[in-house]
């Protein structure tokens, strides 16, 4: 272990922290990102509100760093009524103007409107004849037969056949800002795939993949 800080673990992209645990470089130094990586990222989320929140935040993250979104997450939750789909689906123009004036969130009109539209699409999914379990059921139905097993950051995929199919399905059902890359990031965040690097202390911790 380095006496001056986290030590890189060979050329894998993993960094061994002072606690002796190996994490990817992006989660090795910033305390907020480290806490998120250690406790949340990749752990199974199967409830409608939780899936809708993560879908919304992944859409807002497009073009920005995840650290920016994570730091603003408390403000996002307050501004978007805790990401309760029924509440967000009921937002009107005065809510849009309120959100555009809220410096605590990402003030992007297109993404705000997409979140409101996606909330309405989430509510509609509850009654869909071809979906069991609403939004959460739909998203989890795209779990692949195998998960990636990346040993380096370069081996971590950014999309898959399943994320492409999920994005098409969501768009067909009225969802916006859900391209294949966003869909794959969602799958990673929810634990549908495990892209923790082999050697990371979090690899396999979700219980979804043996």
From TrEMBL:
GO terms for molecular function: DNA-3-methyladenine glycosylase activity; metal ion binding. It holds the Pfam family Adenine_glyco. Zn(2+) binds at residue 196. Keywords: Metal-binding, Zinc. The keyword Glycoprotein does not apply. GO terms for biological process: base-excision repair. This is 3-methyladenine DNA glycosylase.
């Amino acid at each position: 272990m380095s006496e001056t800080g986290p030590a890189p673990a060979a050329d894998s992209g993993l960094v061994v922290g002072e606690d002796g645990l190996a994490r990817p470089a992006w989660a090795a130094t910033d305390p907020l990102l480290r806490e998120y990586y250690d406790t949340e990222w990749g752990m199974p989320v199967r409830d409608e509100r939780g899936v809708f929140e993560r879908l919304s935040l992944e859409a807002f993250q497009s073009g920005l760093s995840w650290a920016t979104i994570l730091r603003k997450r408390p403000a996002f939750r307050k501004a978007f009524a805790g990401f309760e789909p029924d509440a967000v689906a009921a937002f009107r123009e005065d809510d849009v103007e309120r959100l555009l004036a809220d410096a605590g969130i990402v003030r992007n009109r297109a993404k705000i409107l997409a979140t409101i539209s996606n909330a309405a699409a989430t509510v509609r999914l509850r009654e869909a004849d071809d979906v069991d379990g609403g939004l959460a059921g739909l998203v989890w139905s795209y779990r692949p037969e195998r998960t990636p097993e990346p040993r380096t950051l370069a081996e971590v995929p950014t999309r898959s056949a399943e994320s492409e199919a999920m994005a098409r399905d969501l768009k067909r059902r009225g969802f916006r800002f859900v391209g294949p890359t966003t869909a794959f990031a969602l799958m990673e965040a929810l634990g549908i795939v495990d892209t923790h690097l082999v050697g990371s202390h979090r690899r396999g911790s979700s219980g979804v993949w043996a």
